[in-house]
Amino acid sequence: MAKKSLRKTLVGKAPKSTASTKKPSVKKALTKAAQGKAAHKKPVAKQKKADAEAFAGIAKRWTAAQIDEAFRRFQAQEPEPKGELKHTNPFTLLVAVVLSAQATDAGVNKATPALFALADTPQKMVALGEDRIRDLIKTIGLFRTKAKNVFLLAKKLVEEFGGEVPKTRDELVTLPGAGRKTANVVLNMAFGQPTMAVDTHIFRIGNRTGLAPGKDPLAVELELEKVIPAKYMLHAHHWLILHGRYICLARKPQCEKCIIADLCQWPGKTANTPP
Ligand code: SF4
Predict the structure, then answer these.
(1) By three-state DSSP, how is residue 103 classified?
(2) Nearest to 134 by CA among 157, 107, 102, 111
(3) Which of 138, 224, 262, 275 is the most buried (most CB within 10 A)?
(4) pTM of the model
(5) What is the C-alpha separation between 149 and 258, in angstroms, rounded?
(6) Is 181 a residue of the active site?
(7) Domain interval for residue 177
(8) Is residue 209 part of a domain?
(9) What residue owns the CA closest to ligand 1's atom 4?
(10) Mean pLDDT by 10 residues, the chain (275 residues)
(11) Which residue among 35, 207, 247 is best mutated to probe the pocket of ligand 1, counting the most ligand atoms within 8 A of its Cβ?
(12) In angstroms, rounded to a whole number, what is the distance separating the alpha carbons of residues 149 and 204?
């Protein structure tokens, strides 16, 4: 079909352009047609406004039944979700998480195999030395500071923790470069504790959807721990991170692929039903 008549078919007979009636673009019409009547593209400005409102904590909260249903679906879709940082033991996991601050997991994974081949214990990391660590991780952002932290945290593990990664948050946060989020990831992934590490993705989802609104990551973390049923807590961190990383993206959320689209309370969403 010729481009002109395709446009006519998709958008109908367009009214003459006036200040109050605008002809929809072919791209918009195609999107709308592909998504069906329930879905429609929200202008970016509206989505930004919706996010601003959500981050102000005014999203409508989910009921306990809705929360249970959301995690039932996450579990059905991916029963054993895994983190994406490469590691071989609790120590290399700790180092990988420290290196992942303000960097992507993929970027960290490119550098760490060579590092861990030489130093997969605190003792070996100390022996490797800060300069060599820096050379091995120089493709990762903030590598100078991170090399220093990795060296110092390994040294502290050797000197104060018998070369073992501690299993409590209070101890983990005393290590150079390790904050509450790092501690929660390590406790969850290395030691199977039902912690919730709130990163940028989980903070966005908690506020945007109405699952766990909160003004800062700690508030969202505490709210998530309160509302998520205990049976889902061990894997909840990964389900939410993966959902934020691949579906509920910051700029272009993939609402049409979202299995919780019907539960989500975000006014900027572009679909109302799960695929
Ligand atoms: S519908 Fe899904 S992808 Fe869209 S904003 Fe809500 S949670 Fe995010």
Answers:
(1) coil
(2) 111
(3) 224
(4) 0.80
(5) 38
(6) yes
(7) 90-191
(8) yes
(9) 255
(10) 37 35 47 48 74 72 95 97 95 98 95 98 98 97 97 98 98 97 97 96 94 94 97 96 96 96 93 92
(11) 247
(12) 28
